[in-house]
Amino acid sequence: MYLYILGLVASWLIYRWYKERERVPNKEDKYVYITGCDSGFGKLLATHLDKLGYNVIAGCYTEKGEDELKKISSDTLTTVHLDVTDSESVGKAAAFIRTLVGQKGLWAVVNNAGVAHPSGPTDWLIVDDYKAMLAVNLFGVIDVTLSVLPLIKKARGRVVNVASVFGRVTPFGGPYCVSKYGVESFNDSLRLNMAPFGIKVAGIEPGLFKTNVTDGGAMQSNLQRLWDRLPQDVKDDYGQDFYGKSVGILVQRFRMLTDSNLMKVVSCMEHAISAVHPRTRYLPGWDAKFFWLPLSYMPTCITDSLFRKMIPGAKPRVSSFQCVSK
Asked: Which helix (H) or strand (E) holds 81?
């Protein structure tokens, strides 16, 4: 019986490997629009696809990002200024792309732009922290996608949205996981709605990779800023030594799981763009496949217990008004 099951699994894996090898033809005629190309995954994907012969349209937030990208790419790569939180900027970029691609349409959009800070205990945050991150990570994804969706329909192309494994499981507080859960839901609805038009929608769900988002210094600065602005009564709830003891532990544990090989993510993005039969979801990173994903299927009591041990938590004061059982 076990051999039979192993045979079925092996056959399915071989079939999937063979099926996923097939690539779409005429990549030199296809335009790919990528957001967040100033650094990290977006910049690496833009240069990678440029070398493969795609017509890349790289959305950059800064002039410096545009200039640096032009220096390391071919003349066929086009940069465009893009602030995904500004609908006017998104609209201008879409109008430029419409003129550039003409009747060919847009083969793919890759919504890569994202931020990870501020993140921290929920009661350290204010609603504006949530609004600022959702504006980039969720509403920016939706706005950019809708702005070019008619062009993707023309090409019967692809929408590739970068979510996160933290769109499946929530080990820490703040708006990051909230935004990524939203991207997952948007992906699911868009995939169903666009299937009749021949459009394929893929989600990239990376684990922890070494980028500006997971930089230990940035993480520490973020937590310091949040701690400094807390009212004294909240600091007292956590204890004055909480910040000093917790930050180092948190940064160290995240660093243990961080992968420096960004091409694992970029390869998944490329496959979602170029494969005749792309996957619905990609999970780059060993931590995503073998740690975070399995945890997302476990009972809540188990995940809560594990995360409380992994991530430093508060040890609240015992109020003098509380009854202590003997």
From this structure: strand 78-81
15 is an active site residue: no
For residue 201, pLDDT beyond 70: yes
Q: Which residue, 288, 289, 287, 271, is CA-closest to 279?
A: 271
DSSP SS3 for 100: helix
Question: What does the longest C-alpha to C-alpha distance in the chain come to?
Answer: 78
Q: What pLDDT, on the 0 to 100 scale, is given for residue 320?
A: 39
Residue 129 near residue 145, CB atoms below 8 Å: no
| Gap between the Cα atoms of 123 and 140, Å rounded | 26
Helical (H) or strand (E) element with 160 = strand 158-162
- Going by the DSSP 8-state scheme, the letter that residue 174 receives in this structure is S
Residue 92 is encoded by which pair of tokens?
Answer: 């201008």
> Chain centroid to CA 247: how far?
23
180-197: b or e for each residue (b if 16 or more CB lie within 10 Å)? Answer: bbbbbebbeebbeebeee
CA angle 104, 43, 129 (to 5 degrees): 105
Q: Which of 176, 181, 238, 243 is catalytic?
A: 176
pLDDT band at 243 (very low <50, low <70, confident <90, very high): confident
Could you give the domains of the chain? 26-210+260-310 (3.40.50.720)
Contact 176, 183 (CB under 8 A): no
Q: Which of 187, 210, 213 is nearest to 285 (CA)?
A: 210
| 89 CA to centre of own chain | 21
Mean pLDDT of the 31-46 span: 96
| 111 strand-pairing partners | 161
Between 267 and 235, residue with greater pLDDT: 267
Q: With 0.85 as the threshold, say if the pTM is over it.
A: yes
In the block, which residue shows the tokens 């192993």?
6
